[in-house]
Specification:
The longest helix is centred in the first third of the chain and has 68 residues. 14% of the residues are buried. This protein has three helices and no strands. Helix 1 runs antiparallel to helix 2, helix 1 runs parallel beside helix 3 and helix 2 runs antiparallel to helix 3. With 147 residues, the chain is mainly α. It has one domain. It comes from Fulvivirga sediminis. Keywords: Coiled coil, Signal. This is YtxH domain-containing protein.
Length: 147
């Protein structure tokens, strides 16, 4: 009977150790998925921000060309107003670029804590860019009296 109890205890101990090893492996796999998710989410957000930056650059180029086309028609006040609008657009672009830098510098450990803040900052900067770009569009569509 003692031999049976001893054998049973040995089998039970082996089973418990094996279970614990399996839990550790599962936990490691969960961490690995988290790392993969972090990289995927960060890369997606970086790509979105870079895409927006490219769009802004194209708008700035287009607006600058449009200003050159209409240079003879713009009054000094209109030109100054336009330059302020473009400066505002460039400031918003800078804010968006700062969001990109924050994404690039965020570590896996901080990702969950900062992801929402970064996404919020990205959305706010993007909205600011869209407003600034619309202001420039409105300027050229005749909403300004100084042309």
């Amino acid at each position: 009977m003692k031999l049976f109890n001893l054998l049973f205890a040995a089998i039970l101990s082996t089973a418990m150790v094996a279970c614990d090893a399996q839990k550790t492996t599962e936990a490691d796999n969960d961490d690995q998925i988290t790392v993969e998710d972090f990289k995927r989410e960060r890369d997606e957000l970086k790509a979105n921000i870079k895409s927006e930056l490219e769009k802004i650059d194209a708008k700035i180029d287009r607006f600058t060309a449009k200003k050159k086309e209409q240079a003879d028609e713009l009054s000094d006040d209109a030109e100054k107003q336009y330059d302020e609008l473009i400066a505002n657009l460039k400031d918003k672009r800078k804010e968006l670029n700062e969001e990109l830098e924050e994404v690039e510098n965020t570590s896996e450990e901080n990702w969950e804590n900062t992801k929402a803040d970064i996404q919020k900052g990205f959305n706010e900067a993007k909205a600011g860019v869209e407003k600034a770009a619309q202001d420039v569009e409105d300027f050229f569509e005749g909403d300004n009296d100084n042309v």
